[in-house]
Amino acid sequence: MKKIYTLILIALCTISVAQKKNKFAMINGIAHVGNGTVIPSCLIVVDKDKFEMVGSIIGVRMNNSGYDTVIDLGGKHIYPALINANNVLGLHDAFNVRATRDINDVGYINPHIRTLIAYNTDNKIVPTIKTNGILYTQVTPRGGMICGQSSIMALEGWNWEDAEFKADDGIHINFPQYVTRSDDDKDDKALKNYNDQLTILNTFMKDAAAYCASGKAEEKNLRFEAMRGVFSGDKRLYIHTDKAKDILMAINFCKTYAIRYPVLIGVKEAAKVLKDIKASNIPVMVVRVHDLPDKADDDIDAVYKLPAMLQKEGILFCLSSEGDTEMEAMNCRNLPFLAGSAVAYGLTKEEALMSITFSTAKIMGIDKKIGSLEDNKTASFVISEGDILDMKTSIITSAYIAGKPVNLKNQQTELYLKYKVKYGIK
After folding, report:
1. CATH number at residue 154
2. CA 224 – CA 203 distance, rounded (Å)
3. Which end of the chain has less Cβ packing within 10 Å, N or C?
4. CB neighbours of 392 closer than 8 A, spacing ≥ 6?
């Protein structure tokens, strides 16, 4: 009997080990690494949640016994998981119902507010975003001067704890917007309001810097405590600003308070101060390529051309899809096509891909884990029949987050198949 029990135990252990094994290879695909490199005929090995090997299959003799599965991509394109920066995805359901909106909070100075715990994995918009290859999102707060802390989430999981990729990656500031002074009373009031906002912001930053420099406080201040990571370099400081003068003010602001990892977001008028941005070495997030300029005398395609201008100047940048709050979350599915539009205005396809993968990861400080198809990085990627930046050819056939397949079905694809059958469309 003991021998029988021993044999059963060995068999169970063997089954357990076999179930834990999760190693597969993909061959004969076109790998867009994400850092500007393309491998025409690739061999990619995934071991559990990491890339074990990313390279060319040319000259390699395959030994299939070492893998659970060998997938022949047959010329399909494989890309790193796309990253949706600076977005409210997952923070609201029915936008017109106040109880479902966690986009902004009461108050003007809220560095301690966290989007992490407000993220809803059951949001019905999320599955429609994954269909276009976007597998990570930076859940970003809005409202007030200091909005709160963003977090980076994987678009998969039962709850926010499962989806968490990087908690509290940075604090977001809506930088005061300068107004031109005139004899008009309204403009005078606006200028006074602008100066008041600057005073409030600078007072808070000075007090927070002093608080953090003093070491461990006897009485904790939650707002100041939240700023510790910004001064130590553990968190980014994301500054939302568009106008040229405000961009220059924001750059000086970062120098004044010795911010180690600042990021400029928006920068519609960056073309006017490219040299200053380059000299500051501050990366930028461009907001929506599909947008109009703010001034009537600007080129109609000024925003479309901006990514190529930043690339030419050697400024680290990425693309985001921030927009009208009601539409922002659902429209972020178009992120790859924003990058595609930037190709039409001067970027190469691989540079455009970098702006929604590797460059985004680098700006947010997660490039050692995701953003490109490289050895020992998290195996998050998408496979497409054609160019992922072109809406005509982008057909995502499969996607993986940390080595696990992602369900790409959503309500829209179900309705598409339903009515395709009904009307006999092939």
Report:
1. 3.20.20.140
2. 12
3. C
4. 386
